[in-house]
# Entry
Amino acid sequence: MAPATSNATRPLVLDNACEGVGYTPLCRLDRLAKAHGIKSNLFGKVEFMSIGGSVKDRIAKRMVEQAEKDGVLIPGKSVVIEPTSGNTGIGLALACAIHGYPLIITLPEKMSLEKEVTMRALGAEIIRTPTAAASSSPLSNLGVAKRLKDAIPNAVILNQYANPNNPLAHELSTGPEIIAAIESLPGNQRVDVFIAGAGTGGTISGTAQALKRYNKDCTVVGVDPRGSILALPESLNKLEEGEDLAYQVEGIGYDFVPEVLSREPGLIDHWVKVQDEAAFKTVREVMRMEALLIGGSSGSAVAGALQWLKASPERDVEGKNVIIMLPDGLRNYMSKPWFANELLGREIGAELSPDVTTRIHKVLADNHKYSLSANEDASVNGKIEEAVSALAETMKGVTVGTRGVNGVGKAAA
# Structure
């Protein structure tokens, strides 16, 4: 075993909000384990306790700070653009607010209203893109981000999908924090199993590098939603006849394999596929048994962990330490049908009542000119093009300062 190197204690006084990124606790999941007959020690890595509310705060902070050091981002000049499912966008909005960069986010329509509102509150501009657009399409959030970069002078895409600072953030912080926490316990001080969902793949790849360097026998399990293609072997990704390719869970799974998702042999040992229904059911279980207000991708990770542990007796061993990544919390999903309908006593998949839906869309329509509707397929390209052009024109007159694209702050020095 190599020694852990992280100082896993958050400062008591922060110079700015970015210093509150990370430093998240492990929480025992003993009640859940008992309810499912699990003998291993289950722990959740509670990332919604990071200052921006998710595991993606870590990569956003590192990508911005490293880009500044490398001269890729220039204070008073650069504009940051990023395609995201939301949490990286929130982390970037936080980091860009502190560092004084305008930020434009391209966000698929299926992502929650709460994510958009949070990013806007932090000063970001948002363009919504059709969820059904393939990643290679010019209408996808990746495609629209590229169009924005071409149209806006001094624009930079940090590109979480290929940026080495994505996994490195976890190798240098998330992994060492987990090790330090487990080392503080009596008895077994090894991380025996690490289980996490995969989106860009940076979280699982970077954390796995740190954990396997510390304990080469640590088993790493990736969780991938049904409908995604990230799992190996590829046969796991095959859908049943008539099974819907679309999935509701946000932040994990893709229709392409990001560069930062490591395919290095022996790094990610197993993969588990999880359906939406199991993920959302597990969210409610964890909330009511452990009082942790987790999000949908956390539900996927826990459901995948239970599925993997139960699949073979030798996997679930008394005294083993099993760490489950809980990427974000419920804050981002309280208006989503899978959660809101449950509270109202309706089944998953039922629509919110028309009056609720109308109020939600009215907020967007009244305040956010460039929000797009996925239902407007016939004219969506024109609307995106209009939004790109409008933002590009707006940026020409913006003084880049502490208030980003609003152009009302002091000019950066």
